[in-house]
Amino acid sequence: MFLAKRELFKKATDTFNGTGSEGHYNTWKTALQTEIKDVPLTAIEYIKVLLANTSSDAHKVVKNFYDASAGDPARALDNIWTQLDTRYGSSIKVASSFRKQLDAFPTVKEGAKLGQQLTALFDLCNRVVSQMSAVPDLQILNFAEGQKPIVQKLPTFLINKWRKKGTEYQWANGNRHPPFSLFVNFLERQMKEYSNEAFNFQADKPSSSKPAHSSTGAKARTLATAADGAENTESTEGTESLNCPMHPDSSSHGLAMCNTFCKLSIDNRREKARTANICFNCLLDTHRRQDCPVKDRCTKCDKDGHHPLVCPKESASSSFRKNTSFSGKSSANRRDNKPAPAWQHGKEYKPNNVNSQPKADKGLEGSKDKSTSSAAPAKNLCTKICKGAPKSCSKTLLVDV
């Protein structure tokens, strides 16, 4: 018995911290009381066990009330438990702690790590549902208003699955909303399905290759020309590279400038962008459509939310190069009279530059021939091969190694 007491007086590895750990209070209290119920302890010994099993704010509460009632250990023990229950074990405190953890949980995203994210969310929700019988304030999670913020963290296709399952439950139970325990069971099934490595066919994207440095340790620098006549700027290693899912080993172009992608039918282009998790608004893979900074409307249907290459109104046999506003035609020949994007004449493609209009080269001003006065001026930064237009285009890329 002496050895058992000595072990209880040792500092525990899993201590209760107090503020911020209210959701763990009931579990900690039950485990501690179970551990010492068969060990005869005096009030002072019991307080020593509490000191060994608390830390931070909770440890200060135990110590302060023990010091204040040193002459009556039994009374001190009662006051300590009363204060711990009030400060950390009340229904409001525990429910508030769990709600904060659920609100702070990140949005679950599709991809190779979907199973891991669902596992983390299930573990948290499972802890919550285990406390609901002892914490009345958590009962709000049995209603639509309480479940909505949690369900909205799931990907769209899982939200649709839960909508179907919840609707079927309502039909079978007099229009009563499905309880939170049913949602946790739904999460568990999805977690097991998307954590099954035997059926994980989605591979991680290959990392973009970087140019090798010289043996002397000097870093290669590239000087990119600007379409607006500004001075050359030096690109650094922090510059965002373009990734094309059609050519994963190359970072020289994005999906919008990929000839292979443009030759696909509209249905195949939309399917390829969807499976590669590409933003439908700008065809980049760095964000989702709802987070896209580009606010342009599609020049084919005058609606927002998608790039002309994936416009649902484009016929399957139409050509992107001929029909979309992102063709090589000059702004003077475009039917919608909108300025051509700057990146069509050499400037590197970035979402915030889609609407920018390149300034005319100063060296070309006043040098137009009468026979070519109606044609667009030649751009020495353009990389396109222009047909039927008297243009002499080239692009110079300075490399300082």
Short description:
The chain is built from 13 helices and 3 strands.
Note down, in words, how this protein is organized.
With 401 residues, the protein is mostly helical. The chain folds into 3 domains: 2-89, no CATH class; 103-199, no CATH class; 225-332, no CATH class. Helices cover 37% and strands 2% of the residues. The chain is built from 13 helices and 3 strands; from the N terminus they run ααααααααααββαααβ. The protein has helices spanning 2-9, 25-36, 43-52, 56-68, 73-88, 91-104, 114-131, 144-151, 156-172, 180-194, 259-262, 266-275, 320-323; strands at 221-224, 233-235, 398-400. It has a 3-stranded antiparallel beta sheet with strand order 2-1-3, with no helix packed on it. Strand 1 (221-224) and strand 2 form a beta hairpin. Helix 3 (43-52) runs antiparallel to helix 4. The longest helix has 18 residues, at 114-131. 22% of the residues are buried. The model is unreliable at 207-241, 319-340 and 342-376 (pLDDT under 50).
